[in-house]
Amino acid sequence: MEVGIVGYGAYVPRHRIKVEEIAKVWGADAPSYKKGLMLREKSVPTPDQDTITMSVEAARHAVRRAGIDPALIGAIYVGSESHPYAVKPSGTVVAEALGATPEIHCADMEFACKAGSEGMFVALSLVKAGQMPYALGIGADTSQGAPGDALEYSASAGAAAYIFGREKIVAVCEDTYAYMTDTPDFWRREYQFYPRHAGRYTGEPAYFKHVLSCARGLMAKSKTTPADFRWAVFHQPNGKFPMRAAQELGFSKEKVEQGWLSPTLGNTYSGSSPMGLSAILDVAKPGDRILMVSYGSGAGSDGFIWRVTDHITAVQGLAPHTRAQLEDRPIYIDYGTYAKYRGKIRKLAE
Amino acid sequence: MIGSARYWREIPQRYRYEAAKCAKCGRVAFPPRLVCAGCRGREFTPVKLAQTGVVETFTVIHVAPTGFGDETPYAVGIVKLDDGVRVTAQITDCETGKLAIGDRVKLEFRRLQQDGESGIICYGYKFVPAIG
Ligand SMILES: [Zn+2]
């Protein structure tokens, strides 16, 4: 029995900050950041947006495309490293907003930037096991970099949601693969506001080792080569890393560009490769094969092979396209507004 | 600040826009009520509000009540939804100076307020400009 994506959706906040605006505050050289990281601007959540609100909007888009009664969804897994509560699940709020309660299983996932694909993997597996007709996996984050840190140029906000099922599939899951090791490249201890990272170390033994090994392992397992894929999408901590990963694996720029959102979106952490996949599904044609590889520090990668079905054309127009949201009347803010929105300014208690 | 008990009770309206349609005259009540304001009927069927509409009127708040001070200036408006129901809510994600009567908006899930840094976060709906 084939299992796959029956509905998908993304959500992009409307506010943006440009690299120049951050660089000027810290006396950094904007052109070298833009060139070095291949980033121009990033999305910024307003104070009334968080992982839960963006998850709800992305999931509503997914439900519209799936055309199902939300009460039939058997599980919701929200993957994020910025759940609004330390103790109180995000998934139950999302489930309530969709109308999927009370016969539902919820769990919040955490694994740095890999939490979204992790939720997708578990949701997909439960449907495959015949435990439930539909399951929903979401990747969402409103991540923060410490002021002046390199991460501040990239850490952004966004969400993507995937409903898995067995009927009216828009993209069949042909194969999966996972690759993990204990790698201390990026972490945040309890009660700490900002994460820490191992600087330049985060490239080679962390991101590239796991992403490349996962992609190669998945292609070996499924006996495929880059020539078998129309599209590929990788985790996007900045603009540069996914492009280099694609090049090393032998995927042309033309196969990755559609899902390469980071130059104007930034790094949406758990939302990153799932949002890239949604931008690809928006334009994919029946028969297209897609390679997807996520990455989460700590460290690991989940890999998926999707094959787009004839049904895709019936659902693409049922919810806003990801790139359309990215380009629709962005509101640019200055660093002061950004600092206020992101809680970086210390105030008197009310 | 909305109390947590009241907040919890209002979840069907705040999260899912659940309204009640009068079985006799068809008038939609939001939030739902026990007696129809149009015909005094007492029988209702549950309906979900249309999620897009048009700004009928709005005002821009410059001096906000406690808990909303960080958000000024912000717009609060009455929106006539495509099913004819009028809903009052904040209109966000727009420059208040450019907002106009007749603008098309849609409902979006947002944080409404939070009880300080340690209390509950209240979620609900606000209006935002409709895409495109
Ligand atoms: Zn009536």
Characterization of this structure:
The complex is a heterodimer of chains A (350) and B (132). Chain A is α/β, with parallel strands linked by helices. Chain A has 2 domains: 4-171 and 313-341, Thiolase/Chalcone synthase (Peroxisomal Thiolase, Chain A, domain 1), CATH 3.40.47.10; 173-310, Peroxisomal Thiolase, Chain A, domain 1. Chain A is built from 13 helices and 14 strands. In chain A, the strands form 3 sheets. Chain A has a 9-stranded mixed sheet, with helices on both faces. Chain A has a 3-stranded mixed sheet with strand order 3-2-14. In chain A, helix 4 links the parallel strand 4 and strand 5. The model of chain A has no long low-confidence stretch (mean pLDDT 95). Chain B is mainly beta and 132 residues long. Chain B has 2 domains: 1-48; 50-132, OB fold (Dihydrolipoamide Acetyltransferase, E2P) (Beta Barrel), CATH 2.40.50. Helices cover 9% and strands 42% of the residues of chain B. Chain B contains 2 helices and 8 strands; from the N terminus they run H-H-E-E-E-E-E-E-E-E. Chain B has helices at 4-9, 11-16, and strands at 18-22, 28-29, 44-48, 52-61, 74-81, 86-91, 104-114, 121-129. A 5-stranded antiparallel sheet of chain B has the order 6-5-4-7-8. Chain B is globular. In chain B, 24% of the residues are buried. The model of chain B has no long low-confidence stretch (mean pLDDT 92). The interface between A and B is medium-sized, with 27 and 24 residues. Zinc ion (ZN) is lined by residues 22, 24-25, 27, 36, 38-39, 41 of chain B.
Topology, pairings included?
The complex is a heterodimer of chains A (350) and B (132).
Chain A: E1 4-11, E2 15-18, H1 19-26, H2 30-37, E3 41-44, H3 51-66, E4 73-79, H4 91-98, E5 105-109, H5 115-128, E6 134-142, E7 157-165, E8 171-180, E9 186-187, E10 196-197, H6 203-221, E11 231-234, H7 240-249, H8 253-256, H9 262-265, H10 272-281, E12 289-293, E13 300-308, H11 312-315, H12 322-327, E14 331-332, H13 335-341
Parallel strand pairs in A: 2-14, 4-5, 4-6, 11-12
Antiparallel strand pairs in A: 1-7, 1-8, 2-3, 6-7, 8-13, 9-10, 12-13
Helix pairs in contact in A: 1-2, 3-4, 6-7
Chain B: H1 4-9, H2 11-16, E1 18-22, E2 28-29, E3 44-48, E4 52-61, E5 74-81, E6 86-91, E7 104-114, E8 121-129
Antiparallel strand pairs in B: 1-2, 1-3, 4-5, 4-7, 5-6, 7-8
The structure holds zinc ion.
